[in-house]
Design brief:
Bound molecules: flavin-adenine dinucleotide
Largest sheet: 5 strands, parallel
Number of domains: 3
Strand content: 25-35%
Helix content: 10-25%
């Protein structure tokens, strides 16, 4: 019996550990394209840039762990072929047979063609190698295209290291699609207070590299000359292998509520999985916590489990001395109200997003007890007390609003 896992990221390695934890004693083949054992990516745009972490400290399990748990980890081994009828896959010229298969191939940064073609020093931040490239430029001048989470985290690292950074964002606010008009301005204020040149409602018209000098021309005609251009405009599911093999995909590998695909014996988890969530409907989540939990859930399903994956999406970010956590799921544009408690100007606050008359999501900045209070409110009716910023979150829970 062999359970194969394609993708040596967080979802893949957590599936392997859960299989052993649950007593599966057959073979496990964990196959990753990268030359490293599985590692955590969040430090790549945070502590690793600033030397607070090392590549070793990002590693999920030691070499000994894989030996002790009898997991056949293959690194630097992209899977190039998959035959779901014969139940085989091909890696490095070798054919591997599987009984159950997990596709955990993650996602890849979206590319900006004009950046790729410019000849300039352009970085997309996904791997340890990318992070090392960014780290080399931290004290220089950097242009970041896109004020999403990764772009803002790198901007914070550049400022903390003493470099100069311009962030160019098309939308009116950083993180606008997730946080909306009510909360996103807080992150603009945070970065401007730390000296980031934040260009909002702005576009990049052209990038060129001539005579050893990079030029980034903005839509308004301004021209910047950075040492490096970091493009952080989102990620796309890496579903190429699945699609080639005929596993149904739609901007990710389609999976049901238990993370099984429509193809027998094939499951999906992590960034690559588009799954049916019992609360949020069809969903693809690109979060660290989800990769861990879905990897484990898929492992249980591979062993015959029938439970739906019902965890609320959760993510975190750290920028300067502000830490935030967000739990739940709603596009900011779909929220009918946002209730902000605390003091956004002091970067200590909470927000609840109301949609469909219920609490759909919540976040905090530097209010570390808040996530535990927000979780029980998710899906609950947005009563007057919930909508009243004068009523503390803790009182909502004890008053039975949760
Ligand atoms: C810089 C950065 C910072 C982040 N910070 C945060 C954060 O602060 N908070 C948060 O919640 N989330 C964060 N994330 C997101 C989080 O890291 C991801 O959601 C998580 O890594 C997804 O794990 P995964 O296992 O699904 O995919 P991945 O981590 O992408 O792993 C998939 C692996 O599969 C491999 N692969 C792909 N195709 C093949 C193939 N054909 N054969 C073999 N292997 C293959 C890939 O090379 C990759 O190693 C961050 C991501 C990045 C890039």
């Amino acid at each position: 019996m062999n359970f194969a896992i394609v993708g040596g990221g967080l979802a893949g390695v957590n599936a392997a550990s859960e299989l052993r934890r649950r007593g599966y004693d057959g073979d496990i083949t964990l196959i990753g394209a990268e030359p490293h054992p599985p590692y955590d990516r969040p430090p790549l745009s945070k502590g690793l840039l600033l030397g607070k972490e090392t590549p070793e400290s990002t590693t999920v399990y030691s070499e000994e762990w894989f030996a002790e748990h009898d997991v056949d980890l293959r690194t630097g081994a992209p899977v190039t072929g998959l035959d779901t009828r014969a139940r085989t896959l091909v890696t490095g010229g070798e054919t591997v047979r599987y009984d159950e298969l997990l596709i955990a191939t993650g996602s890849q940064p979206r590319h900006l063609a004009m950046a790729d073609e410019s000849g300039a020093d352009v970085v997309y931040l996904r791997t340890l190698e990318d992070s090392a490239r960014v780290a080399r430029h931290l004290t220089g001048s950097v242009v970041i295209v896109g004020a999403g989470w990764i772009g803002l985290e790198v901007a914070a690292a550049v400022r903390e290291a003493g470099g100069r950074v311009t962030v160019v964002e098309m939308l009116p606010w950083p993180l606008h699609n997730v946080l909306g008009d009510e909360v996103a301005p807080m992150f603009a204020a945070l970065h401007r207070a730390h000296g980031v040149d934040l260009r909002l409602g702005a576009s990049v018209a052209a990038i060129s590299h001539e005579g050893g000098r990079t030029s980034v021309r903005l839509g308004d005609g301004d021209v910047l000359h950075p040492d490096m251009v970091l493009v952080g405009i989102g990620a796309a599911a890496d579903d190429a292998l699945a699609a080639q093999a005929g596993v149904p995909t739609d901007r990710g590998v389609l999976a049901d509520a238990r993370l099984a695909t429509a193809v027998p014996h094939v499951f999906a988890a992590g960034d690559v999985a588009v799954h049916d969530h019992p609360v949020y409907g069809r969903l693809r989540v690109e979060h660290w916590d989800t990769a861990i939990k879905q990897g484990r859930h898929a492992a249980r399903s591979m062993m015959g489990g029938v439970e739906p994956y019902a965890e609320h999406p959760y993510f975190f970010s750290d920028q300067y001395d502000v830490g935030m956590e967000y739990v739940g799921h709603v596009a900011a544009a779909d929220a009918e109200a946002v209730v902000v408690r605390g003091d956004p100007d002091a970067f200590r606050m909470t927000a609840l997003w109301i949609a469909g008359g219920v609490v759909a999501a919540g976040m905090h900045a530097n209010d570390w007890d808040a996530t535990a209070l927000i979780r029980p409110l998710l899906g609950r009716p947005a009563t007057d007390a919930v909508r009243d910023p004068g009523v503390p979150l803790a009182d909502l829970v004890t008053a039975g609003d949760a």
